[in-house]
Amino acid sequence: MSDLAIASPISSLRRLPGVAIVLVLLIALFGAIAPGFLSAANLSNVLVQSTILTMLALPMTLIIMTEGIDLSMGAVLTLTSLCVAIVSLATQSMLLGLGAAVLVGTVFGLANGWLVAIAKIPPFVATLATLGMAHGLSLIVSDGQSVVGIPHSVRDIYSAKLLGIPVPILMGVASYGVFHGLLYHTRFGTYVFALGGNRDALRYAGLSPTRLLIAVYAIGGMMAGVAGLLMTARMNSGHPTAGLGLEFDAIAAVAVGGTSFERGKGWLLGTLLGVLAVGVLRNGLNLVSLPSSVQVASVGVLVIVAMFLDGLRSRA
Amino acid sequence: MSDRAVGTAVSPVPLLELRGISKTFPGVKALDDVSFAIYPGEVHMLLGENGAGKSSLMKILCGAYTADAGEVYAKGEKVAITSTADAQTLGIAVIFQEFSLVPFLDIAQNIFLGREPKGRLPGTIDRRRILRDAKRVLDGIGFDIDPSVIVDTLGVAQQQMVEIAKAISQDARILVMDEPTAALSDREVELLFALIARLKADGVAIVYISHRMAEVFALGDRITVLRDGRRIDQVRPADVTPDQLVRMMVGRTIDMTYPRHFAEQPGELVLQVKGLSALTGISGIDIEVRRGEIVGLCGLVGSGRTEVARAIFGADPVTTGEIILDGKPISGEPDIAARRGIALIPESRKSEGLALLRSVGDNLVVSALKKLFPSRLYDPNSAQRTADGLIRQLRIATPSARQMVGLLSGGNQQKVVIGKWLAAGAKLFIFDEPTRGIDVGAKSEIFALIDRLVAEGAAALMISSEQIEICHVCDRAYVMRDGRVAGHLARSELTEENIVRLGMHHE
């Protein structure tokens, strides 16, 4: 075979982001070794299960683009999920449950934003502190017990279909659409790039980095509230450790997706692909009967592999 | 000659006039009664040595600093510049050396940051219009590029063009450029000059800070020379020669004594650098330092002085050339250089030279641990004795060896850095701006200390932007320009004028 024939597919592969390669390889791998992986039912399942992570990873992308991080997202999601369970149980209203969850989530997001932008506490420390507070509150409001017996209106969201498509998938797609529009087509999105890329440029333009930064974290909290509804619906209960470690998956998905922790380099579609890679990996490992401990470790490996592929690409 | 007399030939009313501007920072008078007028369609060159007050003046123009005294007039009316917004309203835009661009936005988004055309939905941007408007601005300055290109993929020159486009789009009438050609290739410089000519024709005034004589004469309509925060003179290029300009720039007043015992005969060769080049932009460096000598390394900031020091110390990889210490070649890592007896006392001693939260004693012995404790067991008493000895020898003003280094004054911190290398048995000391940020009395003491070091058999290479210090303290000096050694000055030729002349661009 001539060199040319080999060279051209490789050079075009190099232009592909690492996360796309990883996702294709993972699908191919589990298609080959995991029975039933490629069935329509299972693929739909992967998408449904990825919705909650999508809702966290999208705002996490914006936060990381500002050279920040939100470690509290998983714990806040646990708390908002409990809010949904408790409020909907008391009022028999799904919407009131959702409202309470969004309110609580947004308050935590605002707190994170305030701590980072005004109190100037490093994001890692600030959101670690709110993680602890959200976790503690979860234990208090639930008394350490699961909240069961929630109304059907909540539970049905997870299994309902619209035009034959599961509602969670639609919610995930809608979230992506909103965030895509927000990041790439609004002034706010433009300023998110500047928050990480060059804050002085914002100041010269007469804009307040402080308020923008608070808004970015607030959006993260709000989305944790929306995701809380899905989590409660999925588990058919409120559970005091429901969101444990989800911030890890969200940060991993963002990192795998090629968003940089410096200079405001972000890629929203990459985050979506990263979420799917994490979802496929967990689902596939589940199908081949590996325990969840292996799944957690494998997400770590995934991050390193994707970074490595991107590193190869940027050097090429 | 008054501003007005010179200005009449250009245009009767200045776009902007500064009268009697002063600005004081703790311990230094950055600007002292500076007056300065800018007329439409002129390129006004601002000339001065490092620290003459150019950047302070620039920052006052753009509202980053507020003057302590003095008045500003725009088109004859009294105004105040107290914020960047004020400066923008007056049509003043500064093209900084570090750009104010957002790397992962496109050119159009950068040009109109904060002024995006509104789209149909609230909060959205009219994408088609922003691209069209950007294209128009770019065309206006003759920059032919697709406005949807991400800025991060552009070269330095192109980013500078975007920066200028941004300023022009804000109706800037006064552009302040800080050494705009510093990072440009010859071809890019030509493009920039063409753009400047175009802006001039449109009546834009340009304040141009430069260290390159050729540019000063090629572009300038008028030249203002600053020295020690004062306006020395304002001239037209046709009325002066480069040599006259240099003489205006130098001649700083001496405000201290320099204790120095010059050796009759320099000792044997300690350091020999032959044809040294590194990726950091220095090339073909030849330098020699002998025992008992203090050799100066001068030149403008950015001429490669620090890079030479770092390459000798092994902190940056060397591409070609040889570094010979005591007759034996040396190459590689800082720890090898340190073991062979080279001490680098960096400019930013806070970040590179000292562990600020540790004690004076710890800092003094840290480089000498292997020498002091060959058995690899730490003996606090012996460390304490060594530290106390050095504190006495160097007259470090500290209550005890246990004091945290960060609490000492700048001069005493500098002594601790020197003591640290003395303990390790260094024989070649490389000082990078040894007197930056320390007061006059402490400076004198530091020089006395360096003098004593070389008298006792060490050798020293000293980088300084203070030409007067080099002239008084050094046995001889190398002058750098654009990453090369532009010349060597023996003791008898060591004058500020000669240093500045060699360090500037004449071609």
What would you say this structure looks like, in words?
The complex is a heterodimer of chains A (316) and B (507). The two termini of chain A are 23 Å apart. In chain A, helix 3 (40-65) packs across helix 9 (187-197) and helix 4 runs antiparallel to helix 5 (94-118). The longest helix of chain A is centred in the last third of the chain and has 27 residues, at 209-235. In chain A, 78% of the residues lie in helices and 1% in strands. Mean pLDDT of chain A is 88; it is low at 1-12. Chain A has one domain (40-315): ABC transporter involved in vitamin B12 uptake, BtuC. Chain A is mostly helical. In chain B, the strands form 4 sheets. In chain B, strands 6-7-8-3-9-10 form a 6-stranded mixed beta sheet, sandwiched between helices. Chain B has a 6-stranded mixed beta sheet with strand order 16-17-18-13-19-20, with helices on both faces. Chain B has 507 residues and is α/β, with parallel strands linked by helices. Chain B has helices at 3-8, 54-61, 84-89, 107-111, 127-140, 156-169, 186-201, 213-219, 242-249, 305-313, 334-340, 349-353, 360-365, 369-372, 380-394, 410-423, 440-455, 467-473, 496-503; strands at residues 16-25, 28-38, 43-47, 69-74, 77-79, 92-95, 174-178, 205-209, 222-227, 230-235, 269-278, 282-290, 294-299, 318-325, 328-329, 342-345, 428-432, 459-463, 476-481, 484-489. The chains are: A mainly alpha (316), B alpha/beta (507). Chains A and B meet through helix 9 and helix 10 of A and helix 3 of B.
Features:
heterodimer, A: mainly alpha, ABC transporter involved in vitamin B12 uptake, BtuC, globular, B: 507 residues, alpha/beta, Rossmann fold, six-stranded mixed sheet, 19 helices
Summarize the structure.
By secondary structure, chain A is mainly α.
The number of distinct β-strands of chain A equals: 2
Question: Order of strands across the widest beta sheet of chain B?
Answer: 6-7-8-3-9-10
Report the CATH C-level class of the domain at 1-91 and 173-181 and 207-254 in chain B.
Alpha Beta
End-to-end C-alpha gap of chain A: 23 Å
The rough form of chain A would be described as globular
Strand order in space, largest sheet of chain A: 1-2
Largest sheet: number of strands, sense, barrel closure of chain B: 6 strands, mixed
CATH-scheme architecture of the domain at 1-91 and 173-181 and 207-254 in chain B: 3-Layer(aba) Sandwich
The largest inter-chain interface, given as chain pair and residues per side, is: A-B, 22 and 21 residues
CATH topology of the domain at 1-91 and 173-181 and 207-254 in chain B: Rossmann fold
Order of helix and strand elements from N to C terminus of chain A = HHHHHHHEEHHHHHHH
Major sheet characteristics of chain A: 2 strands, antiparallel
CATH architecture of chain A: Orthogonal Bundle
* Fraction in helix of chain A: over 70%
Structural class of chain B: alpha/beta
Whole-number count of domains of chain A: 1
Q: How many whole angstroms does the radius of gyration of chain A measure?
A: 20 Å
Structural class of chain A: mainly alpha
